[in-house]
Amino acid sequence: MTDREPGQPRLAVIGAGPAGLAAAIAAAARGVRVTLLDSAAEAGGQFYRQPAAELRARRPQALHHEWRTWERLRDGLDAHVRAGAVRHLTDHHVWLVERRADGRFTVHALLGPEQEDPAEVCADAVLLATGGYEKVLPFPGWTLPGVITAGGAQAMLKGTLATAGRRAVVAGTGPLLLPVATGLASAGVEVAALVESAGPRAFAGRARALAAQPGKVAEGARYGARLLRHRVRLLARHTVVEAHGADRLEAVTVAALDGAGRVRPGTGRRIPCDTLAVGHGMLPHTDLAETLGCRLDGHAVHVDDEQRTDVPGVWAAGEATGIGGAALSLAEGHIAGRSAAARLRGARPEPAEWAAAARTRTRLRAFFAALDSVYAPPAHWAEQVTDDTVVCRCEEVTGGAIRAAVAELGAGDARTVKLLTRAGMGWCQGRVCGPGVAGLAGCELTPSRRPFARPVPLGVLAAAGEDD
Amino acid sequence: MNVGLTCDVVVVGAGMVGAACALYAARAGLDVILVDRGPVAGGTTGAGEGNLLVSDKEPGPELDLALLSGRLWGELAREFGAAIEYEAKGGVVVASSPGGLAALERFAEGQRAAGVVAEPVAGDTLYDLEPHLAPGLPGGVHYPQDRQVMPALAAAHLTRASGARLLTGRTVTAVLRTRDGAVRGVRTDRGDIHAPAIVNAAGTWGGELAALAGAHLPVLPRRGFVLVTEPLPPRKVRHKVYAADYVADVASDSAALQTSPVVEGTAAGPILIGASRERVGFDRTFSLPVVRALAAGATRLFPFLTDVRAMRSYLGFRPYMPDHLPAIGPDPRVPGLHHACGHEGAGIGLATGTGHLIAQALTAPGKTPDLDLTPFRPDRFTEEAA
């Protein structure tokens, strides 16, 4: 921690996905000493997740698009690491970023995979590129083995080259479902159906914003062609109403939705499968930002044009500031890295230098805002959740218990539901069940304060930053 | 929607104290409306540990109220029991030095004279009570009358059982008064509620409500953090265990940070670690130094906790009064206004006695209450003293 060379400002970048990598490279190229911390064993994040080296994948690029972008980032990182401008700390699970009384920062991490031993990194500024996580809404049977998240299925494909089962259904809503379905199909899994709750008409209403992204439309068309090639049935305006199985998944029932987002009676059909990959979009990871006191806009970290948060010395980029995919994350990371580098050297950043990235950012934010209004879970999904459906898995809280807290005990908001039922108090701290609990309680999903981004041993906590 | 509502008494604040006031007032035959700007247990109640303690109180009016409250909690436990996670687990106060033990034993002797069951525990017996305590501790005192509830559940269930009309999400914006100054109800952002009596159970925000009625009541926030661990197997920590310094911290008038470890298991499995006290206004910023001190204190008491993970921490604002006593009873300055707030960190435990005494004051104002309310008089503070 005393590795500070006078005159060289230090920036800690948290997260080595597209945003963090772009930021680290941009800042390191401009005279800043960067420490890049990430929980994974290799850079890339969720998007550029790499097969473990020992698997000796012959053609990992088959699983990725934008492979050349990744190669450029990887080579850039390697060059800066070799030159000593970037220190890349893998297997570092950050649990807290502390803003000290002198305005500097200490990043507190646990070393993986056991996450028992602490590591601390001091920096003059921090850049949060913490990404997003998957949102999954509950339905009867969703806790059966064989039901996995769409993102989990994709991570499995990219990271271990393994596939989940023989016959899969991909369901939910959002742009992630397409690559998951085609990825599973390419890996030899029979994809029985892609069940998307959004309907084609929703896209028509947003045609202009969507068509402003020719690249994205082409990407969608490519996936569409691949679905056809693998004979994947696309069921738009449909939803999974139940997963069946004794000890593990054996089948799902899917049904059509009416215009109001309710299940049409009598349309249910059973599809046998051993895997259900389900997802309902993404949410930003904001725990570290919130504990630092950064303002949020809804669920995302608020940033200005330079990607600065409202806390001095704290930048944020990528999906922590709003879900928008890898290309947007790269643009935001690049801008954040350049801004941080200039400000850390006491200079005024020159936005003209990153005009191209700023244009990309504007375009992609508009595109994803349009997508967001298209891809929505069925408005009345909560009606499908039976009273005995376990909604919070960690604390085993049922739909009935949540409804009782609202109807009988006067809970009207997510926090009170949590206090009265324990939903969201367990190991995942509501990251999995939060949207489901809020929906069942009929209240808004509000970001819940999680001072520790991950559980921390009390012995580590008792000594954290003690020698400050 | 500006439809006027009418009742016998409006209780402002749906925390633990408001819920107990509603319950006892309703059971005394009054028609009660309970109003809160947030949800049930949305303030300090939802951020507390649920301590029903006699052990930390020196002989005096607060201890008398704690003993009365303890008896009433015992009655409610037969009615609500598991639903509010009531546990008559007892407390163990641990001394860290022979000198500290002597002081603790003198303190316990005074408490015994006031009616507290306080059993001295010498070195070895201490480990029979709490096998996982750090080795080498000289001893402590066992308080079988210390108990615990889950405060949010207790507030919600007492509210429901009271039958009071519960109006959440309504902010009281004015206290309505007659021409001669007596209370005639409250104005809220969603309509008026007419009643000849108001109970101020607004906790840490009780000073603001009193001000709406033109009465001065110096309630200040005293911030506290709580650490929550991962769920552990039962009986790793069997009692509510705390270091003897805790009593001095509670009684301190300093605004600066005090932390003394208070460790207890819960019915649900996690261990709760308190207790910090500092007067920093309503600042909700996370503080690593405070939480670090809590973790250090807890691991000193129970070394096995070193490897146990903290899942989260939360903070709350205790309603602090300059003399550490709550305001309970009618306010002579505003006829019809009753106060039931300012219990600092003891509001869950003292809620039942407070509710019972408020119900007595509301239904039989001329009669002598079960406990002398003089020390709790809401007009005991001059404006300058605050």
Automatic annotation (TrEMBL), chain A:
Pfam families named in the record: Fer2_BFD, Pyr_redox_2
The residue ranges of the BFD-like [2Fe-2S]-binding domain are: 390-438
Q: Show the Gene3D superfamilies listed in the entry.
A: BFD-like [2Fe-2S]-binding domain (1.10.10.1100), FAD/NAD(P)-binding domain (3.50.50.60)
Alphabetic keyword roster: Oxidoreductase
Q: Which InterPro entries match?
A: BFD-like_2Fe2S-bd_dom, BFD-like_2Fe2S-bd_dom_sf, FAD/NAD-bd_sf, FAD/NAD-binding_dom, Metab_Enz_Cyan_OpOx_G3PDH, Opine_Oxase_asu/HCN_bsu
What SUPFAM superfamilies does UniProt report for this protein, alphabetically? Answer: FAD/NAD(P)-binding domain
Record keywords: Oxidoreductase included? Answer: yes
Q: Which residues form a coiled coil?
A: none
- Where is each FAD/NAD(P)-binding domain found? 10-325
Name of the protein: NAD(P)/FAD-dependent oxidoreductase
Q: What is the lineage of its organism?
A: Bacteria, Bacillati, Actinomycetota, Actinomycetes, Kitasatosporales
UniProtKB/TrEMBL annotation, chain B:
Asked whether the keyword Oxidoreductase is assigned, the reply is yes
Q: Name one GO molecular function term.
A: oxidoreductase activity
Report the residue ranges that make up the FAD dependent oxidoreductase domain in this protein. 8-360
Give the EC number(s) listed in the UniProt record. 1.-.-.-
InterPro entries documented for this protein:
FAD-dep_OxRdtase, FAD/NAD-bd_sf
| Domain of life of the native organism | Bacteria
Pfam family of the protein (one):
DAO
What keywords were assigned to this record?
Answer: Oxidoreductase
List, alphabetically, the PANTHER family matched: FAD-DEPENDENT OXIDOREDUCTASE DOMAIN-CONTAINING PROTEIN 1, SARCOSINE DEHYDROGENASE-RELATED
Q: What is this protein called?
A: FAD-dependent oxidoreductase
